[in-house]
Amino acid sequence: MLDKVTQLLLVEDDEDDYILTCDYLEQLDSHTFNVQWVSSPEQAIETLSKNEHDICLLDYRLGASNGLDVLKEAIANGFSGPIIMLTGQSDDELDSAALDAGAVDYLIKGEMSSSRFARAIRYALARKDVEGERVERLKAEAENRSKDRFLAHLSHELRTPLSSILGYTELLMQSDFSQQAENELGVIYRNGKHLLSLLNDVLDLSKIAADKLELTLSEINLDSMLADVYTLMRVSVLDKGLTLRFESDQALPLVARLDATRVRQILINLINNAVKFTDKGEIVVKAWTQHVDNKEMLFFSIKDSGMGIAPEKQQLIFKPFEQIADVESRSVGGAGLGLAICAELLSRMQGNINLHSEIGKGSTFTISVYPGDISDVERQVLNFSSVPQLQSKLTPSKVHGRVLVVDDLRDLRMLVGHMISSCGARVDYAEHGQQALEKVRIADAYKAPYDIIFIDIHMPVMGGKEATIELRKMGYKGPIIALTAATMKGIHEELAALGFNDVIPKPVDSSALYQCLQDYLVSPENTPQAKDIQVKALSEKRQRFLLVEDDDDAAQITQLLLESLGVETVIASSCAQCLQILNHDQQFDKVLLDMHLPDGSGIDLGEQVNERYPELRLVIVSGAEPDPTDIKDLNIDRVLLKPINLGLLETLIS
User: What is the pLDDT of residue 646?
Assistant: First the structure.
């Protein structure tokens, strides 16, 4: 007999039938029933509406009332359990009516002593359990989808501003300006990287909780990976006056099948912790293999000579957001996430983490991972002298082509565009997918299609996924690269199925971007129209342009391109601001006039500039060819059709 008590409501106006039904129910050894009896339709509807019973046996005849009416109203009021209709005699028409109204079965009272009654009860309850499980499963799936959306949104919203902070700081650090603000830029960059590291930890925990953290296993060179970690950590260790040693007493496999990124993450996290809490002495990293449960596992230990951890605190540090009291009183960073993430990652790699520590004598963390079947892999005592497999920062290589960058955030558009234009490609911009579609149509109409499109996934109006589907329908065959902060499990496969060629995660890494450009665009020397752009040859002196453009994005990128050609560029966003600037400063070689400004047209502004400053040379910048009659009386040097690119701007200063 089951321990769970089944709550049963019996709706019956005949007391004898009530007693008989209770006797039959007691004979069912598959369930224990707690029977509640009501005799009137009003009581039945009121009780069933509370939805507190697992099953209901409902008599068809309740005095002058019809049990079908009770059945329909109970279901309408929210009763979710199975209802079995009882009647005194067989009636096929009544049987069909009961089932149509929502009953799960129809029983004749004379058959209640038979096995059919027992089967009907068991079937009805089993059906309720299955339905309950289905509902719970659907709820769980809905919650998981909600978590997915939340993670994608959180990742996008937090990584996006960090992309701008880190990207523009790097640009400034590489510029002449860094000499005047080297310390300040360093502070911004280090704190930005710290925030990014903390964000990655939080998102990793969220991915683990949502079962969206994906491991990427590959054959890796163990010696190179450890040399990589050593190179990364050596500077921070030396900065604190400590010594870092990597060693192994036994021959190790040269190749192991691991997620190199995650193993590096774990080792770097543990070494970082050792550095934080060690004031003098050394940090020793050892590696070895050992058989555990008939599997050869790869082990690492990280030993420090630091402060140590009290026994009662040692288990707390593996829980998220936990910090020991000694740590909280010290000026060290961290939110108590790293070790919790390490433990989760190791469990997914069929390994674990252990700690041995004594107060004042230091700590030793020992981790294990499964390296795949290494029984036949060549081994040697590693010397950790292999060239580290660090992803070196690629220097921008010159490429040729037209590029469209689509992102709703202006800072990121400009950052990515600046990186691309530094390679020589011509860049155009769109704020969302719908605008991107229109720009692609216009480019095709002018026989100047885009060679590659970089597009953000999450944008208002139309996101990157929807835009890519439409672009492929339009016949665009060029590469489309996703820019996304939501690097969740399965995202590469999903985007590839939609028509994307590749994915660059945010924050956008310059090396990944440059590599992508080299993969998909050709070098200028390989094109028939190739020419070497030498800014000094274009102008012996630094020229000055006044750019009148009300679109911030267009103004910023035009300014960046002009300044890359050695032209000092001043921006005005309206007719009034242009005239105000010229009132105090007329030392411009050219004035670039947009045709559509918020307080007037470029034609009207050109007439005023001609009248007041006839020596200034004007350039019309327009999205459409202007009417020759409108500009014939103006001192127009040239007309440039948007989109503006590096090649067009070169003609202005040649």
Answer: 64
Mean pLDDT of the chain: 80
Tell me how far apart the alpha carbons of residues 371 and 220 are, in angstroms, rounded to a whole number: 10
180: number of Cβ within 10 Å = 8
- Asked if residue 23 lies in contact with residue 61, where contact means CB atoms within 8 angstroms, the answer is no
Is it the case that residue 318 has pLDDT exceeding 70? yes
Do the beta carbons of residue 245 and residue 284 sit within 8 Å?
yes
What percent of the chain has pLDDT above 90? 21
Distance of CA 531 to the CA centre of its chain: 40
Q: With 80 as the cut, is the pLDDT of residue 90 above it?
A: no
Return the minimum-mean-pLDDT range out of 49-58, 112-121, 268-277: 112-121
Q: Which two tokens stand for residue 58?
A: 């409902």
Neighbours of 542 (CB within 10 A): 11
Question: According to the model, what pLDDT value does residue 437 have?
Answer: 95
Q: Residues 419-422: contacts with CB within 8 Å, 24+ apart? A: 419/167, 419/508, 419/510, 419/513, 419/514, 420/454, 420/513, 420/517, 421/557, 421/560, 421/561, 421/564, 421/646, 422/396, 422/564
CA distance 512 to 420: 12
- 129, 133, 139, 141 alpha-carbon torsion, rounded to 10°: -170
If you write DSSP's letter for every residue of 484-504 in order, what string do you get? ES---TTHHHHHHHHT--EEE
Cα dist. 194→191, 282, 364, 411 in Å?
5, 24, 25, 21
Cα 62 to Cα 68, 435, 573: the distances in Å are 10, 68, 83
Q: Are 67 and 40 in contact (CB under 8 A)?
A: no
* Residue 458 CA: distances (Å) to CA of 106, 153, 159, 461: 54, 8, 12, 10
Element (H, E) at 260: helix 260-276
Q: Report phi then psi at 514, rounded to 5.
A: -65, -40
- Which run of H or of E encompasses 107? strand 105-108
Phi (first) and psi of residue 146, to 5 degrees: -65, -40
Q: In a 3-state reduction of DSSP, which class is residue 30?
A: coil
Q: Cβ distance 479 to 507 under 8 Å?
A: no
- Highest mean pLDDT range out of 207-211, 267-271, 472-476? 472-476
pLDDT in tens, 113-168: 667 788 888 888 887 777 767 777 777 666 666 666 666 666 656 666 776 677 67
Closest by Cα among 423, 427, 492, 425 to 457: 492
Give the phi and the psi of residue 592 in degrees, each rounded to 5: -95, 120
Please name the residue that has the structure tokens 């020229």.
543
